[in-house]
């Protein structure tokens, strides 16, 4: 009886760290949007979309991380695949905040580059884990 464990410890750790980092990322980005709206002449019609992207990203992050944790721990490819799909959506929103939000400060670049790197690493580990579960 071969009872090999296929779930990925590096993925589990990274999901946990990403969850903690995302809380920091969200609060820092929200604070910067508020700061920019006070300091710069932020067009009213552009403040709402920038905030909407940030909040949509936060809403996506909860099922993304949950499905990642669940899929990895139960060695199930479906939740992990869904989590990977949600990661693609999060990457798109992150790129928006990196390149296309109304004002991009160096701190925005730093926060988003770090988040994109984490998403990239996490996605690679998810694909590897899914391949291990399927085989």
From TrEMBL:
The organism of origin for this protein: Panurus biarmicus (Bearded tit)
Gene Ontology cellular component terms for the protein in this record: ciliary transition zone; membrane
Subcellular location: Cell projection, Cilium; Membrane
Name of the protein described by the UniProt record: TMM80 protein
GO BP annotations, alphabetical order: non-motile cilium assembly
Transmembrane segments: 13-35, 47-66, 78-99
Record-linked InterPro entries: Uncharacterised_TM-17
Organism placement in taxonomy: Eukaryota, Metazoa, Chordata, Craniata, Vertebrata
Keywords: Cell projection, Membrane, Transmembrane, Transmembrane helix
């Amino acid at each position: 009886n071969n009872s090999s464990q296929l779930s990925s410890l590096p993925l589990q750790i990274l999901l946990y760290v990403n969850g903690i980092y995302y809380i920091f990322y969200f609060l820092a980005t929200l604070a910067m949007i508020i700061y920019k709206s006070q300091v710069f002449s932020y067009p009213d019609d552009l403040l709402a979309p920038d905030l909407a992207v940030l909040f949509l990203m936060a809403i996506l992050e909860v099922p993304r991380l949950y499905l990642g944790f669940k899929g990895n721990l139960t060695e199930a490819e479906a939740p992990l695949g869904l989590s990977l799909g949600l990661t693609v959506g999060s990457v798109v929103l992150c790129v928006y905040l990196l390149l296309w939000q109304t004002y991009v400060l160096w701190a925005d670049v730093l926060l988003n580059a770090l988040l994109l790197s984490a998403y990239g690493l996490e996605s690679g580990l998810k694909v590897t884990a899914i391949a291990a579960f399927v085989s």
